[in-house]
């Protein structure tokens, strides 16, 4: 059985496993560069500065040419660790792509539920589960055992930057998996 999941755009679904490196830039905020294993830039993530005027965390995902793909907006109350993703730079309800939130308030291991806007059930469309030590995550389709991506965090040192090594399985939207990844610990 072949699983296909187009969330952002079909051009981000490729017929082979996509190996990505998401590197946190050395700058204020949470800015990331997403490359393939050959070092080609595929996506960039820029964060906004959180102020009293804009108390929410915002991340903007752009393609390699600078075109805005997604606006990720963190909930005002960070305790529930909820994020909403919108097309482009929008925050309009009709541009909502997905909502990502914790499955419960108290957790020993991170478990996140992802809901697509057309979902009218209480069953998530995707689930992100951390390993026991919390340095890697698996992305599943809903409540199934079908893994569609694996994310491993490599902690940086004084000389190196923090990175996420991401394997996105065939026909799964890698821009969507990148969006989930950059919201894991920001």
UniProtKB/TrEMBL annotation:
InterPro entries (UniProt xref): LOR (IPR007612), LOR_sf (IPR038595), Tubby-like_C (IPR025659)
Xref: SUPFAM superfamilies: Tubby C-terminal domain-like
Domain of life, per lineage: Eukaryota
Family as reported in the entry's similarity comment: Belongs to the LOR family.
Name of the protein this chain belongs to: Protein LURP-one-related 15
């Amino acid at each position: 059985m072949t699983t296909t999941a187009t969330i952002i755009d079909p051009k981000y679904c490729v017929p082979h496993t996509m190996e990505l490196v998401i590197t946190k830039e050395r700058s204020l905020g949470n800015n990331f560069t997403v490359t393939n294993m050959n070092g080609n830039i595929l996506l960039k993530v820029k964060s906004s500065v959180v102020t009293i005027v804009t108390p929410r965390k915002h991340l903007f995902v752009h393609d390699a040419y600078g075109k805005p793909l997604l606006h990720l907006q963190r909930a005002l109350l960070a305790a529930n660790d909820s994020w909403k993703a919108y097309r482009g730079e929008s925050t309009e309800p009709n541009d909502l792509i997905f909502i990502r939130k914790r499955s419960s308030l108290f957790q020993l291991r991170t478990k996140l539920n992802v809901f697509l806007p057309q979902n009218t059930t209480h069953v998530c469309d995707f689930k992100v589960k951390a390993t026991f030590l919390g340095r890697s995550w698996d992305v599943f389709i809903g409540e199934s055992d079908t893994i569609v991506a694996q994310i491993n965090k490599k902690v940086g040192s004084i000389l190196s930057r923090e990175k996420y090594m991401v394997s996105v399985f065939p026909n799964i939207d890698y821009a969507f998996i990148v969006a989930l990844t950059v919201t894991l610990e920001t």
